[in-house]
Amino acid sequence: TAPATKATPPFDSIDSADLTLRTSDCVDFQVHKAILAMVSPVFADMLALAQPPAGADARPVVDVSEDSGTLDALLRLCYPVAKPAPRGVHEVVPALAAAVKYDMAWPESVLREQLAQLAAQSPLQSWAIASRRGYEDVARIAAVALLRLTYTLTRPDLRKLVEKSGVSVPVFLEGVSAGDYFRLDKYLGSRSRDVSFLSPGPDVTPAEEPPQVSAPHAFTTDIPFPDVVCEAADGTQFLAHRAILSLHSPLLKACLSPAPRNVNPVLPPVAPSESLPEVRSKLTFDMESQTLSAILTIAYGGEDGIPADLTLLTATISACDKYKMASARSTAERLWRASATASPLSAYFVALHQESVPQAQAAAELVLRAPLKGRYVPLMEDAPSLAYHRLVTYFSKYTDVVKERL
Fold first, then answer.
1. How many whole angstroms separate alpha carbon 35 and alpha carbon 179?
2. Strand, helix or coil at 11?
3. b/e map 114-152, b = 16+ CB within 10 Å
4. Residues 243-271: pLDDT tens digits?
5. Nearest to 298 by CA among 267, 333, 270, 322
6. Element (H, E) at 400
7. What does pTM read for this prediction?
8. What is the dihedral angle through the alpha carbons of 387, 391, 130, 120, rounded to the nearest 10 degrees?
9. Mind listing the pLDDT tens digit for each residue in 165-174?
Protein backbone atom coordinates (compact mmCIF):
# COMPACT_ATOMS: atom_id res chain seq x y z
CA THR A 1 0.00 0.00 0.00
CA ALA A 2 1.30 3.45 -0.95
CA PRO A 3 2.05 5.80 1.96
CA ALA A 4 -0.70 8.30 2.69
CA THR A 5 -0.21 11.96 1.79
CA LYS A 6 -1.72 15.07 3.32
CA ALA A 7 -4.82 16.71 1.92
CA THR A 8 -4.78 20.31 0.72
CA PRO A 9 -5.49 23.02 3.32
CA PRO A 10 -7.48 23.32 5.46
CA PHE A 11 -7.80 19.55 5.84
CA ASP A 12 -4.08 18.85 6.11
CA SER A 13 -3.43 19.56 9.78
CA ILE A 14 -6.32 20.78 11.88
CA ASP A 15 -5.19 20.66 15.52
CA SER A 16 -8.70 20.17 16.82
CA ALA A 17 -9.49 17.35 14.36
CA ASP A 18 -10.28 13.99 15.94
CA LEU A 19 -10.72 11.78 12.87
CA THR A 20 -8.80 11.00 9.68
CA LEU A 21 -10.61 10.11 6.47
CA ARG A 22 -8.36 8.25 4.04
CA THR A 23 -9.41 8.33 0.40
CA SER A 24 -9.04 5.68 -2.29
CA ASP A 25 -5.92 7.44 -3.62
CA CYS A 26 -4.33 7.45 -0.13
CA VAL A 27 -4.85 11.07 0.87
CA ASP A 28 -5.58 11.83 4.53
CA PHE A 29 -8.19 14.44 5.48
CA GLN A 30 -8.23 15.67 9.09
CA VAL A 31 -11.84 16.28 10.12
CA HIS A 32 -14.14 16.57 13.13
CA LYS A 33 -16.50 13.84 14.21
CA ALA A 34 -19.03 16.34 15.48
CA ILE A 35 -19.32 18.12 12.14
CA LEU A 36 -19.59 14.87 10.18
CA ALA A 37 -22.20 13.51 12.58
CA MET A 38 -24.19 16.73 12.30
CA VAL A 39 -24.26 16.80 8.51
CA SER A 40 -24.51 13.06 7.83
CA PRO A 41 -26.71 10.48 9.61
CA VAL A 42 -24.59 7.78 7.96
CA PHE A 43 -21.40 9.07 9.57
CA ALA A 44 -23.26 9.64 12.84
CA ASP A 45 -24.28 5.97 13.00
CA MET A 46 -20.87 4.76 11.88
CA LEU A 47 -18.98 6.85 14.42
CA ALA A 48 -21.33 5.82 17.21
CA LEU A 49 -20.53 2.16 16.52
CA ALA A 50 -16.78 2.62 16.04
CA GLN A 51 -15.65 4.23 19.28
CA PRO A 52 -11.86 4.01 19.94
CA PRO A 53 -10.74 2.21 23.10
CA ALA A 54 -10.44 4.32 26.23
CA GLY A 55 -7.08 6.06 26.57
CA ALA A 56 -6.18 5.71 22.87
CA ASP A 57 -4.09 8.64 21.70
CA ALA A 58 -3.90 7.90 17.98
CA ARG A 59 -6.43 9.65 15.78
CA PRO A 60 -8.69 6.95 14.27
CA VAL A 61 -8.51 6.45 10.50
CA VAL A 62 -11.58 5.65 8.40
CA ASP A 63 -11.13 4.51 4.80
CA VAL A 64 -13.62 5.87 2.27
CA SER A 65 -14.12 4.82 -1.35
CA GLU A 66 -14.11 8.37 -2.76
CA ASP A 67 -10.96 9.91 -4.25
CA SER A 68 -9.34 13.03 -2.81
CA GLY A 69 -10.91 15.43 -5.33
CA THR A 70 -14.41 14.21 -4.55
CA LEU A 71 -13.94 14.24 -0.78
CA ASP A 72 -12.37 17.72 -0.85
CA ALA A 73 -15.36 19.13 -2.77
CA LEU A 74 -17.79 17.42 -0.38
CA LEU A 75 -16.07 18.48 2.85
CA ARG A 76 -15.84 22.10 1.74
CA LEU A 77 -19.62 22.15 1.64
CA CYS A 78 -19.67 20.95 5.26
CA TYR A 79 -17.11 23.45 6.63
CA PRO A 80 -17.03 27.28 6.73
CA VAL A 81 -14.20 27.47 4.18
CA ALA A 82 -13.71 28.63 0.59
CA LYS A 83 -15.91 26.74 -1.86
CA PRO A 84 -14.60 26.98 -5.43
CA ALA A 85 -17.34 26.79 -8.06
CA PRO A 86 -17.25 23.59 -10.11
CA ARG A 87 -15.77 23.98 -13.58
CA GLY A 88 -18.24 21.60 -15.16
CA VAL A 89 -20.78 18.85 -14.67
CA HIS A 90 -17.96 16.31 -14.45
CA GLU A 91 -16.92 17.82 -11.09
CA VAL A 92 -20.45 17.82 -9.68
CA VAL A 93 -21.28 14.18 -10.45
CA PRO A 94 -18.90 12.38 -8.02
CA ALA A 95 -19.49 14.88 -5.21
CA LEU A 96 -23.26 14.55 -5.66
CA ALA A 97 -23.03 10.76 -5.60
CA ALA A 98 -21.04 10.94 -2.36
CA ALA A 99 -23.52 13.38 -0.79
CA VAL A 100 -26.39 11.02 -1.60
CA LYS A 101 -24.40 8.03 -0.34
CA TYR A 102 -23.71 9.66 3.04
CA ASP A 103 -27.22 11.19 3.24
CA MET A 104 -25.86 14.76 3.42
CA ALA A 105 -28.96 16.88 2.79
CA TRP A 106 -27.30 20.31 2.78
CA PRO A 107 -24.38 19.42 0.47
CA GLU A 108 -26.80 17.63 -1.84
CA SER A 109 -29.02 20.72 -2.08
CA VAL A 110 -26.02 22.92 -2.91
CA LEU A 111 -24.77 20.50 -5.56
CA ARG A 112 -28.28 20.30 -6.98
CA GLU A 113 -28.29 24.07 -7.43
CA GLN A 114 -24.85 23.93 -9.03
CA LEU A 115 -26.11 21.28 -11.44
CA ALA A 116 -29.01 23.55 -12.42
CA GLN A 117 -26.60 26.44 -13.01
CA LEU A 118 -24.42 24.25 -15.24
CA ALA A 119 -27.39 23.14 -17.33
CA ALA A 120 -26.93 26.06 -19.71
CA GLN A 121 -23.49 24.82 -20.77
CA SER A 122 -24.15 21.08 -20.51
CA PRO A 123 -27.91 20.59 -20.86
CA LEU A 124 -27.97 16.97 -21.97
CA GLN A 125 -25.54 15.82 -19.29
CA SER A 126 -27.43 17.80 -16.63
CA TRP A 127 -30.71 16.23 -17.72
CA ALA A 128 -29.26 12.72 -17.48
CA ILE A 129 -27.95 13.35 -13.96
CA ALA A 130 -31.25 14.92 -12.89
CA SER A 131 -33.09 11.88 -14.26
CA ARG A 132 -30.94 9.48 -12.25
CA ARG A 133 -31.45 11.49 -9.07
CA GLY A 134 -35.12 12.31 -9.57
CA TYR A 135 -34.62 16.10 -9.74
CA GLU A 136 -37.69 17.26 -11.69
CA ASP A 137 -36.76 20.96 -11.43
CA VAL A 138 -33.23 20.43 -12.75
CA ALA A 139 -34.49 18.15 -15.52
CA ARG A 140 -36.87 20.90 -16.65
CA ILE A 141 -34.14 23.57 -16.60
CA ALA A 142 -31.84 21.30 -18.59
CA ALA A 143 -34.57 20.40 -21.10
CA VAL A 144 -35.36 24.08 -21.72
CA ALA A 145 -31.64 24.81 -22.19
CA LEU A 146 -31.35 21.90 -24.62
CA LEU A 147 -34.37 23.13 -26.56
CA ARG A 148 -32.79 26.56 -26.92
CA LEU A 149 -29.61 25.00 -28.34
CA THR A 150 -31.62 23.01 -30.88
CA TYR A 151 -34.29 25.60 -31.63
CA THR A 152 -33.07 26.10 -35.20
CA LEU A 153 -33.63 22.42 -35.96
CA THR A 154 -36.97 21.50 -37.48
CA ARG A 155 -37.14 18.30 -35.47
CA PRO A 156 -34.44 17.78 -32.83
CA ASP A 157 -33.40 14.13 -32.74
CA LEU A 158 -32.62 13.04 -29.19
CA ARG A 159 -31.03 9.84 -30.46
CA LYS A 160 -28.43 11.78 -32.44
CA LEU A 161 -27.89 14.27 -29.62
CA VAL A 162 -27.12 11.41 -27.23
CA GLU A 163 -24.72 9.76 -29.67
CA LYS A 164 -22.91 13.08 -30.20
CA SER A 165 -22.68 13.85 -26.47
CA GLY A 166 -19.03 12.86 -26.35
CA VAL A 167 -19.72 10.18 -23.73
CA SER A 168 -20.16 6.46 -24.30
CA VAL A 169 -23.88 5.93 -24.87
CA PRO A 170 -24.22 3.08 -22.30
CA VAL A 171 -22.40 5.20 -19.70
CA PHE A 172 -24.38 8.31 -20.53
CA LEU A 173 -27.77 6.59 -20.27
CA GLU A 174 -26.99 4.43 -17.24
CA GLY A 175 -29.65 4.88 -14.58
CA VAL A 176 -32.02 6.79 -16.89
CA SER A 177 -35.40 5.20 -17.56
CA ALA A 178 -36.92 4.71 -20.98
CA GLY A 179 -39.87 6.78 -19.78
CA ASP A 180 -37.65 9.79 -19.05
CA TYR A 181 -35.97 9.39 -22.46
CA PHE A 182 -39.38 9.27 -24.14
CA ARG A 183 -40.61 12.42 -22.37
CA LEU A 184 -37.54 14.49 -23.26
CA ASP A 185 -37.77 13.39 -26.88
CA LYS A 186 -41.46 14.28 -26.94
CA TYR A 187 -40.76 17.68 -25.39
CA LEU A 188 -38.10 18.51 -27.98
CA GLY A 189 -40.57 17.65 -30.72
CA SER A 190 -43.69 19.31 -29.36
CA ARG A 191 -42.02 22.18 -27.44
CA SER A 192 -44.94 22.11 -25.04
CA ARG A 193 -44.46 23.82 -21.70
CA ASP A 194 -46.93 21.61 -19.87
CA VAL A 195 -44.64 18.61 -19.53
CA SER A 196 -43.60 16.40 -16.64
CA PHE A 197 -40.09 15.13 -17.31
CA LEU A 198 -39.59 12.43 -14.68
CA SER A 199 -43.07 10.95 -14.35
CA PRO A 200 -46.00 10.27 -16.68
CA GLY A 201 -48.19 13.33 -17.09
CA PRO A 202 -52.00 13.21 -17.05
CA ASP A 203 -52.08 13.72 -20.83
CA VAL A 204 -50.04 10.59 -21.59
CA THR A 205 -52.14 7.83 -23.10
CA PRO A 206 -50.60 4.37 -23.49
CA ALA A 207 -50.35 3.28 -27.11
CA GLU A 208 -51.24 -0.30 -26.19
CA GLU A 209 -53.57 -2.05 -23.82
CA PRO A 210 -51.82 -2.98 -20.55
CA PRO A 211 -50.33 -6.48 -20.74
CA GLN A 212 -52.69 -9.10 -19.40
CA VAL A 213 -51.76 -10.48 -16.00
CA SER A 214 -52.73 -14.11 -15.75
CA ALA A 215 -54.89 -15.46 -12.99
CA PRO A 216 -53.42 -18.40 -11.09
CA HIS A 217 -53.49 -21.43 -13.36
CA ALA A 218 -52.88 -24.92 -12.01
CA PHE A 219 -52.18 -27.81 -14.35
CA THR A 220 -54.17 -30.96 -13.79
CA THR A 221 -54.64 -34.14 -15.80
CA ASP A 222 -57.27 -36.84 -15.71
CA ILE A 223 -54.98 -39.40 -17.31
CA PRO A 224 -54.69 -42.25 -14.79
CA PHE A 225 -51.58 -43.53 -13.05
CA PRO A 226 -49.30 -40.45 -12.91
CA ASP A 227 -45.80 -41.57 -11.98
CA VAL A 228 -43.85 -38.32 -11.66
CA VAL A 229 -44.07 -35.35 -9.29
CA CYS A 230 -42.99 -32.07 -10.88
CA GLU A 231 -42.11 -29.51 -8.23
CA ALA A 232 -41.70 -25.77 -8.96
CA ALA A 233 -39.26 -23.45 -7.21
CA ASP A 234 -41.96 -22.33 -4.76
CA GLY A 235 -42.75 -25.91 -3.74
CA THR A 236 -45.95 -26.27 -5.79
CA GLN A 237 -46.30 -29.83 -7.07
CA PHE A 238 -47.97 -31.19 -10.21
CA LEU A 239 -48.60 -34.84 -11.08
CA ALA A 240 -47.43 -35.94 -14.52
CA HIS A 241 -46.38 -38.96 -16.54
CA ARG A 242 -42.88 -40.17 -17.30
CA ALA A 243 -43.81 -41.13 -20.87
CA ILE A 244 -45.27 -37.72 -21.79
CA LEU A 245 -42.38 -35.77 -20.27
CA SER A 246 -39.84 -38.02 -21.97
CA LEU A 247 -41.62 -37.56 -25.29
CA HIS A 248 -41.30 -33.75 -25.11
CA SER A 249 -37.80 -33.34 -23.65
CA PRO A 250 -34.63 -35.41 -24.12
CA LEU A 251 -33.26 -33.85 -20.94
CA LEU A 252 -36.23 -34.97 -18.89
CA LYS A 253 -36.08 -38.36 -20.56
CA ALA A 254 -32.45 -38.74 -19.48
CA CYS A 255 -33.28 -37.74 -15.92
CA LEU A 256 -36.22 -40.14 -15.75
CA SER A 257 -34.47 -43.13 -17.31
CA PRO A 258 -33.87 -46.00 -14.87
CA ALA A 259 -30.12 -45.94 -15.47
CA PRO A 260 -29.24 -42.74 -17.36
CA ARG A 261 -25.79 -42.61 -18.91
CA ASN A 262 -25.55 -38.83 -19.13
CA VAL A 263 -27.77 -37.04 -16.65
CA ASN A 264 -27.95 -33.39 -17.63
CA PRO A 265 -26.88 -31.02 -14.82
CA VAL A 266 -29.89 -28.79 -15.49
CA LEU A 267 -32.00 -31.05 -13.28
CA PRO A 268 -31.11 -32.80 -10.03
CA PRO A 269 -31.19 -36.61 -9.95
CA VAL A 270 -34.59 -38.23 -9.66
CA ALA A 271 -35.55 -38.77 -6.04
CA PRO A 272 -38.23 -41.05 -4.61
CA SER A 273 -41.28 -39.15 -3.46
CA GLU A 274 -42.05 -39.57 0.23
CA SER A 275 -45.22 -37.44 0.26
CA LEU A 276 -46.83 -39.43 -2.55
CA PRO A 277 -45.81 -43.10 -2.16
CA GLU A 278 -47.70 -44.20 -5.29
CA VAL A 279 -45.50 -41.88 -7.40
CA ARG A 280 -42.02 -43.24 -7.91
CA SER A 281 -40.13 -40.19 -9.18
CA LYS A 282 -39.80 -36.49 -8.44
CA LEU A 283 -38.34 -33.70 -10.58
CA THR A 284 -37.51 -30.27 -9.17
CA PHE A 285 -37.62 -27.33 -11.60
CA ASP A 286 -36.04 -23.92 -10.98
CA MET A 287 -39.01 -21.95 -12.30
CA GLU A 288 -42.20 -20.41 -10.94
CA SER A 289 -45.22 -22.63 -10.60
CA GLN A 290 -47.15 -20.63 -13.23
CA THR A 291 -44.44 -21.29 -15.80
CA LEU A 292 -44.20 -24.99 -14.94
CA SER A 293 -47.98 -25.25 -15.08
CA ALA A 294 -48.00 -23.66 -18.56
CA ILE A 295 -45.30 -26.03 -19.85
CA LEU A 296 -47.17 -29.07 -18.59
CA THR A 297 -50.47 -27.79 -19.97
CA ILE A 298 -48.90 -27.39 -23.42
CA ALA A 299 -47.20 -30.78 -23.20
CA TYR A 300 -50.56 -32.37 -22.50
CA GLY A 301 -52.18 -30.60 -25.46
CA GLY A 302 -54.25 -28.11 -23.46
CA GLU A 303 -53.01 -24.82 -24.90
CA ASP A 304 -56.49 -23.28 -24.70
CA GLY A 305 -55.99 -22.98 -20.96
CA ILE A 306 -52.87 -20.80 -21.30
CA PRO A 307 -53.62 -17.11 -20.60
CA ALA A 308 -52.42 -14.44 -23.07
CA ASP A 309 -49.90 -13.12 -20.56
CA LEU A 310 -46.70 -11.81 -22.18
CA THR A 311 -44.69 -12.27 -18.99
CA LEU A 312 -45.85 -15.87 -18.57
CA LEU A 313 -45.44 -16.75 -22.25
CA THR A 314 -41.95 -15.24 -22.45
CA ALA A 315 -40.88 -17.21 -19.38
CA THR A 316 -42.47 -20.34 -20.85
CA ILE A 317 -40.49 -19.98 -24.09
CA SER A 318 -37.24 -19.55 -22.16
CA ALA A 319 -38.01 -22.62 -20.07
CA CYS A 320 -38.77 -24.66 -23.19
CA ASP A 321 -35.39 -23.63 -24.60
CA LYS A 322 -33.67 -24.64 -21.37
CA TYR A 323 -35.21 -28.11 -21.32
CA LYS A 324 -35.06 -28.57 -25.12
CA MET A 325 -38.82 -28.92 -25.48
CA ALA A 326 -39.03 -28.07 -29.19
CA SER A 327 -42.69 -28.92 -29.75
CA ALA A 328 -43.86 -27.11 -26.62
CA ARG A 329 -41.72 -24.11 -27.56
CA SER A 330 -43.39 -23.91 -30.97
CA THR A 331 -46.79 -23.75 -29.31
CA ALA A 332 -45.66 -21.18 -26.72
CA GLU A 333 -44.06 -19.09 -29.48
CA ARG A 334 -47.33 -19.06 -31.43
CA LEU A 335 -49.29 -17.99 -28.36
CA TRP A 336 -46.67 -15.33 -27.55
CA ARG A 337 -46.73 -13.93 -31.09
CA ALA A 338 -50.53 -13.54 -30.97
CA SER A 339 -50.20 -11.39 -27.83
CA ALA A 340 -47.03 -9.60 -28.97
CA THR A 341 -48.58 -8.58 -32.28
CA ALA A 342 -51.25 -6.67 -30.37
CA SER A 343 -48.73 -5.15 -27.91
CA PRO A 344 -45.27 -5.24 -29.53
CA LEU A 345 -43.72 -2.44 -27.47
CA SER A 346 -44.84 -4.06 -24.23
CA ALA A 347 -43.57 -7.41 -25.49
CA TYR A 348 -40.18 -5.84 -26.16
CA PHE A 349 -39.78 -4.49 -22.64
CA VAL A 350 -41.12 -7.68 -21.03
CA ALA A 351 -38.55 -9.72 -22.97
CA LEU A 352 -35.75 -7.37 -21.95
CA HIS A 353 -36.79 -7.58 -18.30
CA GLN A 354 -36.57 -11.38 -18.51
CA GLU A 355 -33.30 -11.18 -20.48
CA SER A 356 -34.86 -13.10 -23.34
CA VAL A 357 -32.86 -11.89 -26.35
CA PRO A 358 -34.74 -13.96 -28.99
CA GLN A 359 -38.13 -12.60 -27.90
CA ALA A 360 -36.79 -9.03 -27.63
CA GLN A 361 -35.53 -9.28 -31.21
CA ALA A 362 -38.83 -10.73 -32.40
CA ALA A 363 -40.77 -7.99 -30.61
CA ALA A 364 -38.52 -5.30 -32.11
CA GLU A 365 -39.43 -6.59 -35.57
CA LEU A 366 -43.11 -6.34 -34.69
CA VAL A 367 -42.61 -2.75 -33.48
CA LEU A 368 -41.56 -1.80 -37.03
CA ARG A 369 -45.12 -2.25 -38.28
CA ALA A 370 -46.28 1.13 -36.92
CA PRO A 371 -44.58 4.51 -36.26
CA LEU A 372 -42.56 4.43 -33.05
CA LYS A 373 -42.42 8.17 -32.36
CA GLY A 374 -44.85 9.12 -29.61
CA ARG A 375 -45.71 5.55 -28.61
CA TYR A 376 -45.66 5.05 -24.86
CA VAL A 377 -46.33 2.10 -22.56
CA PRO A 378 -46.14 2.15 -18.74
CA LEU A 379 -43.46 -0.56 -18.76
CA MET A 380 -41.04 2.12 -19.98
CA GLU A 381 -40.89 3.60 -16.48
CA ASP A 382 -38.97 0.58 -15.19
CA ALA A 383 -37.02 -0.15 -18.37
CA PRO A 384 -33.49 1.15 -19.07
CA SER A 385 -33.28 4.01 -21.54
CA LEU A 386 -30.40 2.28 -23.34
CA ALA A 387 -32.79 -0.47 -24.47
CA TYR A 388 -35.24 2.14 -25.77
CA HIS A 389 -32.42 4.09 -27.43
CA ARG A 390 -31.34 0.95 -29.27
CA LEU A 391 -34.92 0.30 -30.36
CA VAL A 392 -35.22 3.87 -31.66
CA THR A 393 -31.91 3.45 -33.51
CA TYR A 394 -33.07 0.16 -35.01
CA PHE A 395 -36.34 1.73 -36.13
CA SER A 396 -34.54 4.75 -37.61
CA LYS A 397 -32.11 2.61 -39.61
CA TYR A 398 -34.95 0.44 -40.86
CA THR A 399 -36.84 3.54 -41.99
CA ASP A 400 -33.76 4.87 -43.78
CA VAL A 401 -33.33 1.60 -45.67
CA VAL A 402 -36.99 1.61 -46.73
CA LYS A 403 -36.68 5.20 -48.00
CA GLU A 404 -33.58 4.33 -50.01
CA ARG A 405 -35.38 1.48 -51.72
CA LEU A 406 -38.48 3.45 -52.62
1. 40
2. coil
3. bbbebbeebbbbbbbbbbbbebeebbbbbbebbbeebee
4. 999 999 999 999 988 654 444 546 665 55
5. 333
6. helix 385-405
7. 0.85
8. 140
9. 888 899 889 9
